[in-house]
Amino acid sequence: MKNIFTTLIIIGLSIMPLSPLYASISSPCRDLQFVFIRGSGAAQNNSKEWQSFQSSVDTNMANANLSYEVTDLEYPAVGLDNLFILVDTVIGAGNVGDFADSVSAGTSNLVEYYQKTNSACPATKWVLFGYSQGAKVLAAALSKLDSRKVIYAATFGDPNLYLPEGAGLIPPACMGRDFSDYRVYVPNCRTSGGILGARNPYIPTEYSGKLGLWCNDSDLICGSSKNLFINSGHLEYHEYAGIPSATELAIRKVRSIFPEQFYIAEDPKLAAMDTAFLIDATGSMSEYIHRYKAEALRLASATIKNGGRIALYIYRDIATEKVSTIQLCDFSCTLSEFTLLLHGIVTFGGGDYPESLLSATLHAMNTLSWQVGATKSIIALTDAPYHNPDHDGTTLSRVIQRSLEIDPVNIYVITEEGLKDYYSELTELTGGRVFGFDEIPASTDYVLSRPIAILPQEYYYGLIGDIFLFDASMSYSLDDQVSHYDWDLDGDGIFEIQNHTATIEYTASQIGESFIVVRVVSENGTSSTMSAKMIINEVAPPQSNLLAPINLSVNEDSGSSFSLEWQNAPNAAYNLLVVDGVIIGLLPSHISNIDIQNLDLEDPHEFILSSVDSKYNLGGMSSVLFSAKIVNAIKVLGSSPATLGVPSSGYQ
User: Fold this and answer.
1) In a shared domain, residues 387 and 470
2) What one-character-per-residue DSSP string does 339-388 give?
3) N or C: which end of the chain has fewer CB within 10 A?
4) Residues 6+ apart with CB under 8 A from 160
5) How confident is the model at residue 266 (pLDDT cuts 50, 70, 90)?
6) Mean pLDDT (whole number) for 408-426
7) What is the CATH number of the domain that holds 52?
């Protein structure tokens, strides 16, 4: 069990020694200072998150006439290797001190680095990212920095996340309402507080509009997962939806401060894209593949250069081939591999006129691991119509449905001029477009210049009569202005509201599941779509009855020993114990008191206890803050309580 917790909750590695930090600022002053604060147990300059940050900054700053430095903050980032199921009632709290000291050291180092840089280079502006333990460091330091010098800050997987809109039987966030202004990417609308309790207020008021929060789905640490065995999302912030997309947003903020310092590059920065090429390889396609190769390579090269991914498939007809669709390379494909495979495609066979495009398209959508947050496309090249239904039963409606489920995959078809009308339904209902063979260069330009469509949720949830707010205002166009927004309110491909603004209200009137789709149209006429599932029920689901432990109190036994007492929730199998921000472990439910040793009486200490059921789902949380200073103040007033429990503010 210890191994499970160290893997699934927070990666626990050895403690790094703390060396002197930035004794002096001897380098030339820079316009921008980008600082990353890594998570628990990560080695400096050697984590996936840091590498993602550094690469994303360099890519996004490529067309800026600004000097900058990218730094992975030096601090212990202590690994948490003391997570276990408790088997006796005494805890030695040495590792608790290590974690608290690590956060304190990181905070001091960040403030010191800022102060020394600011003293030598007062014009320098800052962009600050904090991941996991690093988010705690960032939060502790913000009030000690000059907010006017900070262009943007971001937190990822914050164990002290606070989103009040995610609380309740049907949270306002599930209807797109009452979002905290720092909420950027939190796909689970029921996310309300991190595993170490909610920090309320989450940010100092002077950072309003300057800080964004990212919390992946299935992240136990920031609270989108409530199961102790589900934490995969916490390890995925290096992927596009996390640090890369946050960096793009930060650089847009930088650009608004320094508009004259960004130039239009010959090869401009594009949004990350997942692009799958799907080529009809029957005999009649030989000429067209030859004509298309140069444009396919141009699109593939631009996609790879800007952090996107490419895949390549060929297909024929199920009726004449044993295997109709062949994956030549998935999204791990390099540009050199793609080039070699593209040039190696051999056309042969054929038979009846239509081919198995529907089956091939569905196969590509189902077999590829699409990148969350990236703009997704399938580019199909064919000179023939398609079977509907296909020989394996795949229908046009199923392909369109699957496209929407993947938020969506826009399907583009390059084909004979006489087939353009035939393909209009497939392309329009998936947010794509059809091009003729004589428009091959234009198809590449179109795909590359599309705006980026964004909805804040992957799903919305409510009851009949609820009023939803759909907001696509974070959408943007890279080299143009957004012209307008079109809205499809039920995912049927008909955009009931056109030439509209970025937000709409919608009153739920029908029970069931459907999709809300927004089409973002830029001034240059290009467009992209984004979809999200909408779930409407008649009545609210039953509320969880896994309540919090009650009557939690702490008693000082001696100068460094404390006893904790509580009353267990009726159906709790365990209680998760957290001391001073460190997850200590699980206590079986037959235990209702515990002694904790070796804590410094001079410091305030926070104790959190959360109910856990037999399937390791977290329930209600209780917390108590013990401060000897408060105890002594009461004693001075003539009272001498044996037990003092002071509730912490902001915990739910």
Assistant:
1) no
2) HHHHHT-------SS-B-HHHHHHHHHHHS-PPTTSEEEEEEE-SS-B-S
3) N
4) 135, 136, 139, 194, 196, 197, 198, 199, 202
5) low
6) 94
7) 3.40.50.1820
Same domain flag for 112 and 134 = yes
Beta bridge partners of 562: 556, 596
454 falls within a domain? no
Looking at the 3D structure of the chain, how many domains does it have? 4
Least confident of 68-77, 259-268, 291-300, 344-353: 259-268
Q: Does a structural domain hold residue 264?
A: no
Asked if 222 and 191 count as a contact pair (C-beta separation under 8 A), the reply is yes
Do 500 and 624 lie in one domain? The reply is no
User: Would residue 602 count as lying in a domain?
Assistant: yes
> In this structure, what CATH number is given to the domain that contains residue 613?
2.60.40.10
Query: What pLDDT digit, counting tens, does each position of 536-586 carry?
Result: 998 877 766 788 899 988 887 666 677 888 999 988 999 988 887 777 788
Separation of alpha carbons 465 and 450, rounded Å: 35
Q: Does residue 436 sit in the same domain as residue 470?
A: no
- Tokens 């398209």 correspond to 361
Residue 512's DSSP bridge partners are 536
Q: pLDDT per residue over 293-330, tens digit each?
A: 999 999 999 888 877 899 999 998 887 766 679 999 99
User: What is the domain extent for residue 565?
Assistant: 550-636
Among 588, 606, 594, which residue's Cα sits nearest to residue 645?
Answer: 606
- Beta carbons of 237 and 246 less than 8 angstroms apart: no
- Residue 11 and residue 375: Cα distance in Å, rounded? 31
Q: Is residue 509 part of a domain?
A: yes
Q: Are residues 247 and 339 in the same domain?
A: no
Name the strands in the sheet holding 497-500, side by side, starting at the edge strand that comes first in the sequence: 459-463, 527-537, 512-522, 482-488, 497-500
